[in-house]
Description:
Number of helices: 0
Largest sheet: 7 strands, mixed
Number of strands: 11
Amino acid sequence: QVQLVESGGGLVQAGGSLRLSCAASGRTFSSYAMGWFRQAPGKEREFVGAISWRGGTIYYADSVKGRFTISRDNAQNTMYLQMNSLKPEDTAVYYCAARSSMIATIDGYDYWGQGTQVTVSS
């Protein structure tokens, strides 16, 4: 069992930056691939990016590629999402997720955090 808690969301102007954190507790964090997802009002949850257990493989959705960066610190049991050049369409609740595998994928996640709101004003 893994418990995940996101933090770092907030209100930012377009073009600004935010860094989200996902703190994990429970079983060995480094054994899990991790992912970020987001859900905007009235829309389905969408994949943002994923990182393998050691961080050697990272995937991004096309919509965030070049603007967002995923990283992890296994010693601190934490994953990060650095978001730069934010756009109003990035407004959503952002969720982190853990997958019972070392391989990063766009789906198949077993554990989810409660989410953190990111709002980008124009």
